[in-house]
Each structure stands twice: as C-alpha cells, then as structure tokens.
Amino acid sequence: MKKLNNKILFGVLIGLAAIFALSRVFRASKRQSNLRTELLKIDTAAVNKVLLFAAVEKGKEIALNREGNKWIAKKEKSTARTEQGSVNNAIATLANLKPLRLITKKKEKWNDYSVGDSGTRVQLYKGDVVLADMHVGRVGFNQSSDGQFNPGGIFTYVRLTNENEVYAVEGFLESSFNRSYKDWRDKSFLRVTKEQITEVQFLYPADSSFVLTKKDKSWWIGSDQADSTKVNSYLSQLEFKNANDFADEFLAMGKGDVSIQLRGAPGVIANVEGWKRPTDWVLKSSWQPAVYFSSENSGLVKTLFEPRKNFLIDKK
What we know:
The protein has helices spanning about 1-35, 85-90, 175, 180-185, 230-235, 300-305, and strands at about 50-55, 60-65, 70-75, 80, 100-105, 120-125, 130-145, 150-160, 165-170, 190, 195-205, 210-215, 220, 225, 240, 245, 260-265, 265-275, 280-285, 295.
C-alpha cells in the first residue's frame, strides 16, 4: 500500500512538472509572438533629408540635406559639407531595424531610457514625406555569463515617436545620431599623393623661406642635399590630414603670414595658408578653400610649417 501511495505521489509530481514546463513554453511563445518582427524598414536610397534634434545640441535642429552625391549639414544660418559617408552610414543603421525585446510601455519610464523629450529625435524624409520618426536613447550592455563586458552585447533603447513602447535594438545607435553640428562637418584638410610632389615651396616671413626640390631620386634645398627620409616622412603625413576645429568667424585680410605650395608635373597640386592670431593660427587649404580651421590644441601648425633645418642631413 505504501509503495502504491509513493507511485501515485511520484506520478502527481511528474504531472505537475510537465504542466509547469508547458505553461512556461506557451507563455514564452505568446510573449515572443507579441514582439514586433521589425521597427523600421527603410529604402535608404530614397532618403534625401534627415532632421536631427540631438541631446548634445539641447534639441536644436540640425538638417542634413542630400545634394547630388553629397550631404550638406545646416544649423541655423550655417551650412557645411559633411564628412564623406557619415550620413549614409548613420541612415544604414536604421534600415530593417529589429527589436531585441520590449522594455516598457509606460510613458513615465521614457526618461529612464533617454527616449523622452530630452533625448535625440531622428526624422528621415523623402521630399516632404516622413519615412521614419523615432527617439534614439541611451546605450545598454549585456554581460557575459561570468559578469564580464560582452563586446557583442551592446544595444540601444529606442522609441517610435508616435508610440509608447520602448524597445532595445542591437548596436550603438546613439553615437550615430547624438552628434553636434561640428561632429557632422567635413574635417578633411589635405588629400594629396606624395609620389606626385616634386617641389615644396615654404613661404615664410623675412628671409626664412626656402624650396624643397626633387632631382632624380634626391631632394635638395638649393645646393644643399636634404635628408630624403625626413622629406618623405613629411610628405607622407600630408597625404591624409584632418583638422578638428573651425574658425568660421575669421575674415582673411590679404594673404596669409605663412604658406606652403605643393607642386608636381601638372603644376600646383595643393596649397596651404596660415594667419597668426594671439592664441592660435587660422589655416586654410585648397582642398576646402572656403573653410577656415583653427589650429588651437591641434599641433597642426608644427606638422605643416617646418623650418629649413628640419630637412637637412644631420652632421656627425
């Protein structure tokens, strides 16, 4: 009799366990079926305008407009070319955006995830038609099983503007959209190919000017042979040079205090001018001739306007 009771009790426990397991499966399946399969599905090629209200700009509007193959950034009365590929890359992060999980449906929780009015709002347009309107919030991180940071576990909280639901989506979207106007601007200062350069003219005040000239495979300053390794090192860092700070308020009154001209077989390849101010230099190059950059805290002047002695062969 006792053995029979034990068998019955054991059978009841097995049955309860099975019911519990099935209920978990059905509830999980139900939750999964309620999760949207995608938040956004965008034809990125159709987007020709982006309006941003970034948290870092305290909600001031930045407009990104496509003009041909280029994107132009606009804030208030200022317009500027954007960094190559930056806008297209940002738009691509929103194409076919899929939620990982639903976080909350409560409006009072929006600010906890930076998807309320103080967050970053993104609007994508095709002409006057709104293709997408959403808030991009803060970033979250999934930890690995041992509690360590998981590089593949980065996600971002987002909310479609006209909906209450906050979702977690894969990736680091905040860095793509919570950017200042300056961050969007094209910071390219020089783009040259050093193999094309056969002459560099350094035009400095007083009698400090000099010319580097390539003869056969050697470099010369007048009748003095230059150190080819030093010259090649200098030219190499001119090939791809950026500047981070702008001097939009500067108005050039005449030629620069110093200048450099890079020449080759085609003639003038590029030139650079610099104007000295009390606390910094203002620089301009032929790569972006309408844009003035500030050298403050960049070290840009030292890498551009080298003195004659820096190219000579060291005497032992």
